[in-house]
Amino acid sequence: KNSGVPQGTLIRRHRIPKPAPNDDEYYTAEDFNIGCEINLYSKVFKLTNADDFTKNFLRKMGVRVNDIENKPENPYTKYRKAMDESMQPLRPYEKHDTLKQFLDHDRHVLRFFCYWDDTDNMFGDPREMVLHYFLADDTIEIREVIPANSGRDAAPMFLRRGKLPKNIESLRQPGEITDRTVLNVFGPTGHGGRYILDSLKTGAVNTDFYRDSDLTLGAVINVWGRKLLICDADEFTKEYYHTKYGIENFSSVQYKKNQAGNPPRQFPPYNGWGSEEDSLCSCMGLLPKPPKRDFIKFMEKDRRGLDSNVLRFLARMNTTKPIDQERRFIISYYLSDDTISVFEPPVRNSGIIGGKFLERSRIKKPNQQPYSTDMSQYYLSNDLFVGACVNFNSHIFVLIDADEYAFRYMEQNPGYSKANINAILQKLVSAVGSNQDEIRSFFMKNDPNGLGCLGYDQLVSLLRQVDPNISDQEIMTVARHYSQRTQEDAIDSQKLVAIVQEQLRKRNYEGFGKLLEDCMQNDKDKQGLLDGEIVRTIFRAHNVPLPDDLLRAALSMSVATEKGEVAYKNLISQMNWRDCPVPPMQYEPSSDPNWVGTQQGKGSVSMINYQNLLDDCFGKGKSSS
């Protein structure tokens, strides 16, 4: 500065030859090193220092880099520097240029999530805030997060945008806080006026404002007397602090207490008027409403044709009275509304009048407080199974048998654990443990002919030894699943056709043509085969007067494929008592309305295929050995 020496680019970029007598050569990188003198067009330059890249480059080339040399001082430059430092400028040279900061950080806002605990004051609550720090001009605004139904007005701003001082001071007069202090003004007002600024800043007001370096996670800031805890920040803010200040840990501050949730609603106890559901609905609102029934369940589980959706069990009374011990009862469970009815079949010369023993209704389980705030528990379908002991209004019943529909319904629905064959087998396998050889030897001892079959009574004694707590329902489920039909038990096909024709002849049913047309219409592939359930549905739609068990037997007789498809043409042809008559035969249905049960474990199941039972429990390889 003010040296009078030309500066800037003295020699443009090009290859420079060495001085004579080596003017046929050019300077290369090997000619440069600290402390060397080079002659460039008769100008001698001495190299005193180099940057790090140059030093590393020379070392890689094998050049030993010399030590740094000091530059000689210029007496005149030293004199001018001392003169400049001693001079006091009449006007300040401090620049207040905020344009660069505005252009670099416009629309860059740091967002912090804050917490203000105002519970020490009357009617104070913990309140959540969002603090915005604008990097363009270092100003701060605070907005309050108002939850729904808090009772507070939704004010748009908690603290308007501006610089936030760290310490609370008294209110300043207008014009007291300025960027520069003006000492005096003279001359005309406006253009042409003159003023002198205070370069020493003797009357300047020093106010410390919050900067971005003061806002960190876990810090407490003073917002005009309110202590705000900075708990968290957004991703842009975290990236900004990581880039500028090198902060790595951004663990958020937990300020919310673990709330236990909404407390359960307290209802008054049952007062005895109406049902418990009706009384509970009256407590739900100001206007009493009747309880809503499960209409979907009612439509799905209501009686449809011969599908009654009623589980019937045979029961005896658990009592010490000899007369009551011989009484038998039919317990009917209605799946549509979970109601139960008890009927006692009349017995001649018993001295007891039979008939309806218990009206159809929902029955509460015993040992419950009568007038409680909790809903009473009622008997459900899972509570009824063969071997169960139930208490119906202080009358104790033991279920000893069930009809075929109840057995089949519970076995087809996995929700009934006592009739789930997979759950029962797992229970038996866990009970047997390492005693598999003893189980096999027991089966072999009771099967001297090696037929792979076992009697029902022998199976019961074995299962009782394996698991003393096994129920009668589980034993009967295993026996039914692995039952072995013998030739004596199997119904001859000719006898079955004769029985079916006799039933249709008595009812004078002759709609075989329409029955065949409907089956052919449902046969999309025109192969003469239909699924057994589809054929059964068609027969029920045409009101074919056959009991359910007889119809199932006829369908199983006509099964033609492994998928259970029925040859419907052959089936309808055999049923046609007009065109294909056979000698008549009488039939007694097994599930008539007067069903009163059978002896437990006898009649339907006589022999059990224990070989298949061992295969499913322990595997084929082990059981065959």
UniProtKB/TrEMBL annotation:
Key words, A-Z: Cell projection, Cilium, Cytoplasm, Cytoskeleton, Flagellum, Repeat
GO cellular component, one term: microtubule
Record bears the keyword Cytoplasm: yes
Listed GO biological process terms: regulation of neuron projection development
Principal cellular location given in the protein's record: cytoplasm
Lineage top rank: taxon: Eukaryota
GO molecular function: calcium ion binding
Location relative to the cell: Cytoplasm, Cytoskeleton, Flagellum axoneme
Stretches assigned to the EF-hand domain: 434-469
Protein name listed in UniProt: EF-hand domain-containing family member C2
